Amino acid sequence: MTNEIKSRVVGNLGHITLNRPKALNALTQAMCDEITRLMVAWENDPNIGAVLVDGSGDRAFCAGGDVILLHDSGKAGDKRAETFWRNEYALNDLIYRYKKPYITLIDGIVMGGGVGLSVHGRHRVAGNSTMFAMPETGIGYFPDVGGTFFLPRLGMAVGQWLGLTGARMKMRQVCEAGIANSFVPSDQHEALIEALGAADLDGSDVAVLKVMSDFVQRPPAADPIPKSVNAFSASSVGGILTALDADGSEWAQAQAENLRKKSPVALSVTFEAIRRGAKLSFRDAMSQELDISLGFLNTQDFYEGIRAQLIDKDRNPKWSAEDLSGVTAMEISRHFVPTPTPLKFLD
Known about the structure:
The chain is an alpha/beta fold. The chain has 15 helices and ten strands.
């Protein structure tokens, strides 16, 4: 049990609230364990007809995971980082294949671990202030928590753009892209929760959608993603940069400038992981992500990125390679070596 999670059952609704508002509800090991415990129990409870997850405070659903723990664990050479990833990725899989309706209210910031808690579920409800991003390459890492599975399924160019650059999407584009599959204005979220708690939820999506139909609205049209995003369909990160440079538009130049600030190792591994993830099952993608994560524990850029962004906060990382030409094929491939102990799933 942890006070970082609030849970209650109202009628047939199991309700989980991430409860670290000052930390933007960033996911800890204790939170991950408690969410898993509740979801496993509720999946087998005939009195629970649906599960809903939201975040406390008005700033974030969940802004990521406990990155400092991962940094410190890797530095110490202990098992905390590996244990966290194993448990988190097993939870991501539980959400993906959950038998009962799983609803997330992704208002505010949803990044990293928060994406893993939401995007794999069946009912993803955006609010007015929803802001999505997978910014991991900026800390010398890659978009995990199932990012290598869902990003290419948004369309390879869009998926590589979001995964490589860490670009931010607001509510309209989040809905347009399908990251959220419904929009309920933020000031209606509490009423939606109350209605779900008062309804006869029988474990079917039909019962949930019947309640949601009174609240869901069509979001305003999103500004289209520029056609220049097609540069991200190139066959390598270098090819993407070449295409962006040749494009010449203001948007393309901004993307190229952004990419050149990221870790060349992280960019190279991320590109390959998303490319491979397009052809993998969800579980195979999650197993591959564990291999990659463990590989990053032996990568200088992982520690340097976290230091520069989150510890010293000088925003001036010294990457191990000056540019993409300094990243060898061996450096990339060693992140994809299978771990001797495969990822275990909850069933």
